[in-house]
Amino acid sequence: MNVCELCGDEASGYLCARHREQLAARLAELPTLYAEVSECLVPRRSGWGEIVATRGAAGPRSPIDEDVLDTVTWGRAAEVVHLWRVDVQRERWPHHGPPPAAELGADCRWLAMELEWIVDHYPAAGDLAREISDLEGTARSIVGDPAPRRQRLGTCVAMTEAGVCGAVISRLPGETRLKCRWCDSVYEGGAALLAFAHFQPDEAA
Ligand SMILES: [Zn+2]
Ligand SMILES: [Zn+2]
Q: Which ligand is in closest contact with the Cα of 15?
């Protein structure tokens, strides 16, 4: 009888039933979660020109620690998940070449489809589960836990040294105080919210 790599409970493979389900759920959720993260952190292209979220670039200061910004980017999550796919595929089909580059969503789906084999035959299943759990934890530290659906209301109209801020302003259902995560501007109360709505860029422009 095997024991689960994560909790030591009895398991038929490398993970117990509970941790196998948890891993399946995380693989299903991860792409959405990282889409939320990029929504939270990176201002969209706005009518006033592009605001680029790069280290040291002139422009609005990110209220979020830049190291965190580095570790939570979609690119990093996609890279980590892809490396796991490469390794699982190499173990399972040693004579096949490596899988083609793929998006985070596609790699998560692939791993989820191979989950049974992974749990039964892949010795690093515990490490895989731990790393997927870390990726989820990092994302949740930004978007909240559980990740609520944010509503996109528009873009920040505050003036900053680099011009109009332009970061996406979103809110949780029921929230009346809007805060820009990029420049820390707050929109609260009727007049401020009216001004926010009034100065939204023309989407058609
Ligand atoms: Zn377990
Ligand atoms: Zn702003």
A: 1
Token look-up 């998006």 returns: 103
Per the structure block, which two tokens stand in for 93? 């089909």
Tokens (6 digits) for 187: 């929109």
Region of 188 on the Ramachandran plot (φ > 0 left; ψ -120 to 50 alpha; else beta) = beta
Q: Report the C-alpha gap between 148 and 150 in whole angstroms.
A: 6
Tell me the per-residue pLDDT of 10-67, one tens digit each, with 9 for 90 and over.
998 999 999 999 999 999 999 888 877 776 665 444 333 333 443 344 444 444 444 4
Q: How far is the CA of 11 from the centre of ligand 1 (A)?
A: 8
What's the CA-to-centroid distance between 197 and ligand 2, angstroms? Answer: 14
| Predicted TM-score of the model (pTM) | 0.60
In angstroms, the CA 183 to CA 60 distance is 6
Tell me how far apart the alpha carbons of residues 199 and 205 are, in angstroms, rounded to a whole number.
13
Spacing, Cα 47 to ligand 1 middle (Å): 50
Of residues 79 and 50, more confidence is placed in 79
